[in-house]
Amino acid sequence: MTEVFFSSSDIVSAGRLRHLVRTAPRGMHHGGNASGRSGTSPDFSDFQPYAPGDDIRKVDWNIYARTDQLFIKQFMGERELRVSVILDASRSMNGARWLFARRLCGMLGLMALSGDDHFHFFTAGGSVPSVFSVKGIRNRHRFLDHLEQLPSPAGAGFAEAAVPKSLPGASVRYIVTDGLEPPASFRPLFRKLGKSAGEVRMILLRQERPDIPDRAGDVRFIDSETGKAVDVALTANTISRQRELREQHFSELAAISREYGIAVLEAEEQEGAAAFVLRKMRKAGWVR
Question: Are 267 and 174 contacting, i.e. CB atoms less than 8 angstroms apart?
């Protein structure tokens, strides 16, 4: 991991922050996070399927002898979180947006690993899907190296590609995307995520600089998802209409997100990943 990709100051900032969830966490150990529920009772609560990184001392060997499957004993008051991040790797995420998105995922991952939480990360929509699942602060540089070496976005259909992915249990899931696909294409993914336990949050990457020209004239538009080019003679009315359609697009996406109980925050590339987390995510009650 190079300093250019992820600065040492951002590593320090992320290490001091923790994910905050309103629902009860799906963890097995005392972690460094907070939830909307608290408790200190050592009483048995439930069983949880074993996952790499879990404390082997909490395996219930009686259940293993009967079922040949590993389960962990879960006790009341334990606050370890399972944090999952789904990154849009479709073609429209290329360029400066891709760097910003990976840095943002780096912040989310470091917060989880510094809190000794389980962390699961995967990309969807790209030509080569990528998965990274770890636990513990010792893995933070491995994760940053993984992010830095991800191939450039080169595919299409992020939401559609994410649906068939296997989703481990999570206390909170983050979707990091530019949301440029048709809003309706997100419905199957939102429906699937809504059926799983845990909170779902979407971080929508937006540009401060508009991608629609300010002046009339002949221009060539290139679809950022498909790569297809269209030559257009822009008039003042056409420019106004295109802006209306763009805002309508994101309004529809926001409405669908609310329908499935998914919280949304907009992140501008120009503000930087660390600043977004420290200001907007903290203000929204997503981190502490």
Answer: no
CA–CA gap between residue 283 and residue 288 (Å, rounded) = 9
Whole-model pTM: value is 0.77
Q: Bridge partners of 221?
A: 230
Express each pLDDT in 219-231 by its tens digit: 666 665 666 777 7
How does pLDDT run across 5-21, given as a tens digit for each residue?
A: 999 999 999 999 999 99
Tell me the CATH number of domain 8-20+80-209+254-283, given options 1.10.10.10, 2.40.10.10, 3.40.50.410, 1.10.1040.10.
3.40.50.410
Sequence-ordered list of residues with C-beta below 8 angstroms from that of 117, at least 6 positions apart, any chain: 19, 27, 31, 32, 33, 80, 81, 82, 83, 135
Give the HSE-up count for residue 28: Cα atoms under 13 Å, Cβ half-sphere. Answer: 22
Query: What number of other Cβ atoms are within 10 A of residue 18's Cβ?
Result: 18
Domain ranges (residues) in the chain: 8-20+80-209+254-283, 44-75
Contacts of 260 (CB under 8 A, 6+ apart): 190, 191, 193, 194, 200
